[in-house]
Amino acid sequence: MPAGRRLRLAGLLVWGLALARAAAADPAEIARGEYLLRAAGCVSCHTDHQGGGEMLAGGRALKTPFGTYYSPNITPDRETGIGGWSDTDFVTALRHGVAPDGSRYFPVFPYTTYTRMRAADARAIKAYLFSRPPVRAPNRAHDVPPPFGWRWTMRFWQWLFFDPGEFIADPALDETGRRGAYLVEALTHCGECHTPRNAFGALDRSMWLAGTADGPGGELAANITPHATGIGDWTAGDIVQLLRTGLKPNFDDVQGSMQEAIDDGLKYLTDEDLRAIAAYLKTVPAIENVVKSRQ
Prior knowledge:
This protein has helices spanning about 5-25, 25-40, 40-45, 85-95, 110-115, 120-130, 155-160, 175-185, 190-195, 235-245, 255-265, 270-280, and strands at about 60-65, 65-70. By secondary structure, the chain is an all-alpha fold. The chain has a two-stranded antiparallel sheet.
């Protein structure tokens, strides 16, 4: 059999297996997984929009003070994506920062927040991912100088800075606040962008959500605590409007990574969940921090 025909048949077989997995999965679970994936911001990080890449096939450049990392392919392609991963592999990656081969992920992958995600939600996201067509797209090597590109050092980094554990609701919050807390602290990972980091790239929890001049790609990430230097004078409706449309109360609009986060994810959330996020943000400690661009 000609090599080209064998490759086509192999591709059809892989696609057929993917369809079989999708058919076996609960359609409601797949739909729930898509919603959670949107909330978790996976589309923005794992799609190379600028390079015309296919959805979730990776290759997005993630610039950091340590170098440029490239997001991996998370389509169900068995060779270049996550098609060979089990549910346990997927949950372990999201909640413990450990790949199926035992290597540790760099914290540019926000597993330090995803660790709070409920295992059932992680499995639902995987169900959705495995319902999609596989895309053959080899992962791109990170452009990071040593020692920041040495994966083995992440064992020590995790020991020092990683606190794994599922989200536990604050009993002082009402039901809406608890839902908002789960969304912010486990899924939408707002703190990963809006919290300053120390010299080792770990979040400075004393400045939780207080903004930073070193946000994604070197962009300014605003203070989103309820202080006057943050969103203290914003109403819950103002917050919902921004998360849905990108429009601020002063009629300015967001740009860059925040715009992508809205367009690829947050605008798909229900009004109820957006109101829950707004309610929770109004309860976090107010921190004074005037964030100014370094440019």
